Amino acid sequence: MVFLTKEQVLSLFKDRFEIIEFNEVEKNGKTGLGKIKHWHIYNVIAKKK
Length: 49
What we know:
The mean pLDDT is 94. Strands 1-2 form a two-stranded antiparallel sheet. It has 49 residues and is an alpha+beta fold. The protein has one helix and two strands; from the N terminus they run H-E-E. The chain has one helix at residues 6-13; strands at residues 17-30, 36-48. The protein has one domain.
């Protein structure tokens, strides 16, 4: 797993990719160890410039 903020995710694509679609999903769910966590999941579709 990688833990990044929305701004950090967007910066990974800066200057080299055109972001076609960016969605953030927030939900409560279980970790691999069964503990409850609030998740921020980023779905990105990008095209290389």
